[in-house]
Specification:
Oligomer: single chain
Number of helices: 5
CATH architecture: Up-down Bundle
Radius of gyration: 18 Å
Shape: elongated
Strand content: under 5%
CATH topology: Four Helix Bundle (Hemerythrin (Met), subunit A)
Structural class: mainly alpha
């Protein structure tokens, strides 16, 4: 009986940990997405200095949370997002409106794709 209780406790702990990590990933990516939308609006208005500040702010938030996110998400996705940050920053610095908007939107889509990939489902747990 003791083993069954321990197994049930471990199983429910695993489920709780899955949902907590999913909520963390979702919250962080939505926060980053909101900041990227601000940068996109600044680029659309041809305000590249504000867009550069917004991109730095987003990248700082990303850097703060990337170590924990990399332990929860696939490394190739994290690497792709990192590469997109660099490309988007460079496009903003070059003041290339079309390229900057394209890179920021692609980065935004990759960020919003992270929670979709980490959605808890029974096949991931078992």
């Amino acid at each position: 009986m003791k083993r069954v209780i321990i197994a049930c406790f471990l199983f429910f702990s695993l489920i709780i940990a899955c949902f907590l990590s999913y909520n963390y990933i979702t919250d962080k990516t939505h926060q980053l997405s909101e900041h990227l939308n601000n940068a996109s609006k600044a680029v659309s208005a041809d305000n590249f200095s504000l867009a550069n500040e917004q991109m730095k702010k987003v990248y700082n938030h990303w850097s703060d949370s990337s170590s924990y996110l990399s332990s929860l998400c696939r490394h190739n996705e994290i690497d792709d997002i990192e590469r997109l940050f660099q490309r988007a920053n460079q496009a903003v610095l070059n003041q290339d409106k079309n390229d900057a908007l394209s890179q920021i939107r692609e980065l935004n889509m990759m960020l919003l794709h992270l929670p979709e990939m980490e959605t808890p489902c029974l096949s991931n747990i078992l």
